[in-house]
Here is the input.
Amino acid sequence: MVGEIFGDQGLIVLAVILVMFFGGTKIPQLARSLGQAKKQFQEGLTDDPDAVKDDATVVEIPAPELVVPPVVATEPEVVAHDPS
Here is the structure.
């Protein structure tokens, strides 16, 4: 798929840029972490969403209460209309 987009020369240039940017030692670590993330994502898709895992803690959060500040009733202002 990537080879179709960039071609053979593009893949070589991309590999050289990655080695220059990350260094030779970081690329295997990056690939390993991407593989672990993919594995965890796929496990999350296959797990029962209603099941609670052993290491998970269920915390119930109370619903927020609606607090309305008191309103002070005042006399309406009378504005004199000057027709001039």
Notes: The chain is about 50% helix and 0% strand. The chain has a mean pLDDT of 77.
